[in-house]
Amino acid sequence: DERPDSVPLLTEMLTFALEGPLPDGETDNEEQVRSAEVEKVYNQSLKENGGPIDLLALAQYFGLNEPDKDELDADDEAQELNKDMKEKRDALRKILLERASLCGIVADKDSAEVTSFDKAVKELKKWTNLGSLKDDDEKIKLTITLARHARICQGKVALAMSLLLKAKKDLSSGKNSKQLDGELLTLFDLVHGMSHVKDNLNEALYYRYPVFKRNV
Fold this sequence. Notes:
This protein is mostly helical.
């Protein structure tokens, strides 16, 4: 197997895993196939497998106080190290987010995958939170993943709903914000007495996004 020895190559491999053509006969299992491919990218990214990401080194570096700007400006070597570490950390965060997101989609359809989803989210949470992400759509993906984890792995429907409602308020500019509503519709089915709220949201989505399929 090809081993990514640089972050740019690792990023290309992740993009291909997420967007590349599917094997013949696998179009009905897209999320499961892509989840397995992203898992391969994660494993190949690690130093022990020949990749550029040393989890221990990253944890040690960011566990310390980062050098301030004056120190970095005065030390080219420290500046280069800081840039390299941040580049690797950002790549790791992206891989872990995509991995957990796909695991959540698969686990929602197959209870045998719940343990893998739980493990992926726990690893993700070591490195990523909403404050560490700059892109609203990545924040939406993280929120949906954490809400699914609360619902599927912890049985905490109220927590899942609160995460999604807060994101609807804070992240309305993301182009994928309607996915938050789709996840909310799933939760409304699980809560007694929420059918009228679900119907109202369904109607709002239908008129806001005419191609949105009513969840009935």
